[in-house]
Amino acid sequence: MESQFQFDWQAAIDSIPFLAKGIPYTLMISFGGLVIGFLLGILFGLLSINKHWYLRWPATAYIEIFRGTPILVQVLFIFYGLPDLIGGPIDPLVAGIAAIALNSGAYISEVVRGGVQSIDRGQTEAGLSLGLSRTQSFWSIVWPQAFRRMIPPLGNQAIVSIKDTSLFSVIGVGELVRQGQVYIANTFTAFEVYFVVALMYLAITLSLSMVLRYMEKRGRASV
Amino acid sequence: MTHIVQLKRMNKYFGKLHVLKDIDLAVEAGEVVVIIGASGSGKSTLIRCVNGLEEYESGHLEVDGHKLAPKGGNQESLAEIRKEVGMVFQQFNLFPHLSVKKNIMLAPMKVKSADKIVANATADRLLERVGISDQADKYPSQLSGGQQQRVAIARALAMEPRVMLFDEPTSALDPEMVGEVLDVIRELAKEGMTMMVVTHEMGFAREVADRVIYIHEGQIVEEGKPDDVFDNPQNERTQAFLSRVLAH
Known about the structure:
The complex is a heterodimer. By secondary structure, chain A is mostly helical. In chain A, 81% of the residues lie in helices and 0% in strands. Chain A contains nine helices and no strands. In chain B, 38% of the residues lie in helices and 25% in strands. Chains A and B meet through helix 6 and helix 7 of A and helix 2, strand 6, helix 3 and helix 5 of B.
C-alpha cells in the first residue's frame, strides 16, 4: 500500500502556541533539578573522596543507586510510591525536579570527583606550605582549577537531563512531550507535532551548547 | 640555643619501607645546609618533614620553638610552622589559574589577612627582587621554567619565612635556566636566610653551603664543611657517590 502521507505545515505551525506552553515546565524542571543536582554533586562528589569511610560509603551508595536505576523508575517511585510513605500526594512538578536533582546529582558527583582528583597533589602541597589550611587550599587553589575541567562534562549532563525531562509526561507534568500528547489527542497530527516538539528540544540544547562553548573558551584563555 | 630547625632521632616509614633512620640534624639561624644523596635516599622526604608535608613516625621535630609531634600526636603547631617555613618545589607548583602577581598575593591575603594594597606592593617588590617585574600580569604557563621557579621563590618569600626549604629547585629546568634560579638562591644565602637545600648541583652546593650533608638509604652518613666533604670524604659511600656525580 502506498503511503498518502504529506507533511502538513499548517498543522505544525498551528501546534506551536499550545506546545510552547510546555517549554516553561521543561525549563523549570531542568533548571531547578540541575541546580539542586549540582549542589548534591558537589556534596556527594567530595564526600566520595573523603578519607573517612563513614562519609565515603553513604556517598558511594547514593551515587551507585541513582546511576544504576532508570530515571523513569525513579520518578515513578517518587510520584506514585512516596505518597504512600508520607501520606499525601506529591506535586508532579516537585516530583520531576526531585528526580532530575537526585539523578543528575549522582552523575555530577562523579564529574566532581574526577575533576578534583585530576588536579596535581603539588597544588595542595604548595598551598599548605604557604600556610593555607586544607579548606583554604581546596577552595582557593584546587576547586577553581577542577571546576574549569568540569565544565564540558557538566554541560553534557545538563543536556542529558533536559532530555530526560521528556519522560515525566508519564506523571502528568505539562512539559513539552505531555503538551504534544494532549494536542495530538485532539488533532491526530502525530508526525507534525512530534517534529515540532523535537525542534523545541533541539533549540534548548543547542543554545546551551553555545553558552558552554563560550565558557570553555573563556576558561581556557587563562590556563 | 640558636637552632631554628631541630630533628632528633627522627624515623619515617612509607609502609614497611624505612625511609629516614634516626636523623639527627640541627640547623642554626642563618645557616645554609645542603643535602645531597642519590635519588631515593630520603633527602626530599627529610625536608618535607620539616614543614609537615610528610608525617614522621618517631623522634622529635622542632622549628623555631614550635614542636611538631610524630604521626597521631599533637599537630597544633603545624599552622605556625608553615607560616615560618617557605618551600620551593622541583615542579614549581605555581597556581596556573592565577596571574603571577596573584600567585604571590594569595597566601599573605588568606593566611595573614594582609590588605590587598599591601600584598600588591609586597608582590611588586619581590618580583623586582627576583628580576621579573615585567611578567606580573602573565599566567604561569606563559613563563619559562626559570621564570616560573623565580616566581615560586617570590611566592614563598611573600610570607616572610624564617626558613626556606628547596626541594631540587633546578632539577626540572632546562640547563640554560639553572643559573638564573641559582643566582636568586645565592642572593638569599648572602642576605642570611636560613635554608635547607636538596640539590644535584654539586658546584652550587659547594659554593653556597655552610654545611653539606650526605644521605644514604635514609641515614646521614657524612656531614661537614663543603670543602671537607667534597675534597676529602671520610665515608666510602660518600666517596663512591661523589666520584659518580663529579666524574662528568
